[in-house]
Amino acid sequence: MKTHYSTIFLILTSLVVIAQNPEQPFDKEIEALFSEWNQLETPGAAVAVVKSGKIIYSNQFGSANLEHQIPISTDTKFQLNSVQNQIVAFAVLLLESQGKLSLEDNIQKYLPEMPDFGKPITVHHLLTHTHGIPNFSTLQRLAGWEVKDIKTREQALEIIYGLSANVYDAGVRYRFCDSGTLLASEIIAKVSGNSFTDFVETQIFKPLYMTNTVYGNVENSLIRNRSNMYSNSGENFKNENYFNYPIDFTLYSTAEDMARWMLNFGSPKVGNLDLIKKMYIPATLNDGSSTHGYGSSTYAVYGQFTSPYKGLKRIEQNGRNYGFMTYIAQFPEQDFGVVVLGNSLNFHAEGAALKIADLFLKNDFIKEKTTVKKDSITENDFMKLSIPELQKFCGSYWNKESSYMRKINLRDGKLYYYRSEGNESELAPISKNTFVLTEDPDSYSIRFEQKSDKELMIFAWGEGGNEFQYFNEKFDLVTYDTKQLTEFTGLFWCENLNVLYKLLMQDGMLTVSHNRGVDFVITPYKSDKFTSEAYYFDNIEFERDKKGNINGLWIRTTNIGGQYFKKLDES
Questions:
Q1: Buried (b) or exposed (e) across 387-421, using 16+ Cβ within 10 A?
Q2: Strand ranges for 115-218 from DSSP E
Q3: How far apart are CA 329 and CA 306, in angstroms?
Q4: Inter-axis angle of helices 178-192 and 85-97, to 10 degrees?
Q5: SS (H, E, C) 500-534
Q6: How many Cα atoms occupy the beta-carbon half-sphere of 415 within 13 Å?
Q7: Contact status, residue 149 vs residue 141, Cβ threshold 8 Å
Q8: Which of 1, 309, 356, 364 is a good FRET partner for 125, with 20 to 30 A between their CA atoms?
Q9: Which pLDDT tens digit goes with each residue over 416-461?
Q10: Neighbours of 233 (CB within 10 A)
């Protein structure tokens, strides 16, 4: 019997070796990174590190379930969210390598239910987030669905197939959107003749021994060893059981399974090296420019992003949805990768993962030293400006391209960049008109300029804080008295989304009400234009007839384009 068990052990370890590197274990250093999460009273994380074709480190910290104080284990499954995009992209490329589809195929070839927006949308557009299709999850929220509602694939597709227009023509710009990934998974099902989940389980998960990786199931939502989701409210944690994706398009996995997935990129057991190379190639837009992701040095590739990190090539993807923070990064030229899966909204998986990478790759960073930015901004570079000098920058600013408002506020002698309630960043001056975000001064800066009769706030993003720019024009906020606000009240119906909203006055404020959701206030910023703290209802433009009476409103956001609501006669 001992021989039998030894044989089994050798077989399993020959598939994927999990061992500590005696030269660089870094056990204590990694444990220190997770010290505040390494308790049964807190959520935590699971970590896996791969190097030279092996899993060389694996560890777990904190609780998967705070109510029962169940510790996170090697079998604990985390909701991956957008990390699953690379699996969908890989599955499409696998079918392409088998000659079963082309990335240049019009998606209507496989999805005849998809509306015609005038210009073709290809499979390639879906995988690179250049398709221009509105985001189904934002549309569902606008349609009255709550974040805690369990939704199905069919319900999400029904909204997409019922659209009358896209946000922009395919290939014109990059905009991260989960609708493309969902539609790509439908194409996989149509081409393979199996359900999407059956295809990835049999063609990817099983061959790679990813035995703890599963999709949710409509009939039975039980996911064994699933981690709960949490957020921090003061000194206490609270449950965050939200569902942003359809239940049957929600992927759960462990850190070690995602490490096995990553190992396939270095030495493919599924697919081949040509397929892997395609996963790393940045896509281009119709005008030949690259598809920038989160900053000018970040490029969108199939199902993930590529960007430099301290002079090294990095392939990365993160998944963030309320209580979960997940991050996976490969450094292909170093044959190195790291996976960090967390279960708290307050946990920064990417930051922890990169600190782990720093431990293992520090010698490589030294070799690439000349490409690392030398002149990092510190507090010594901050200037002292007077209150009048700061006050002149305060006010409201409008981004015309993406239709959103930002504010600059002054508080306790400091400027703050305000996005929404609870979401603002402190600014520090480094010149008379240039500020940096103190949370990351090397990456984000704001410059104020006067051009002709316009006052501009230029938000810059990227290495050096000046590579990717957003132009915002200062304007005077419109104010309405209670009588004027009453003119905007009434019932508004969106036929496309089959949803009714009631606008009414409550405590002197114009309030939006829906029979399933929490009421929220909308406030004017320009004539007939309002905004709110609800991300799906943050840019409202009222429409008037020839007599000047309000007959409808438009909701316009970068995620959904324009959705029209007709005012109903209440008589």
A1: eeebeebebbbbbeeebbbbbbeeeeeebbbbebe
A2: 214-215
A3: 9
A4: 40
A5: EEEEEEECCEEEEECCCCCCEEEEEEECCEEEECC
A6: 32
A7: no
A8: 309
A9: 999 877 788 999 999 999 999 998 888 789 999 998 889 999 998 7
A10: 9
Containing 555, the helix (H) or strand (E) segment is strand 550-557
Q: What is the pTM of this model?
A: 0.84
**Strand locations in 310-433 (E):** 312-321, 324-331, 336-342, 395-399, 404-411, 414-420, 423-429
Residues 6+ apart with CB under 8 A from 224: 77
- Tokens found for residue 199: 């295809």
**Tokens for 274?**
């040509």
Contact in structure between 341 and 332 (CB atoms under 8 Å): no
Q: Is the dihedral of CA 287, 180, 535, 253 positive or negative?
A: negative
Q: Which amino acid is at 314?
A: R
Beta strand spans in 53-162 (E): 54-61, 63-65, 70-71, 78-79
pLDDT tier at 234, thresholds 50, 70, 90: low
Tokens for 119, please give them: 């210009």
**Look-up: residue for tokens 């696998």?**
94
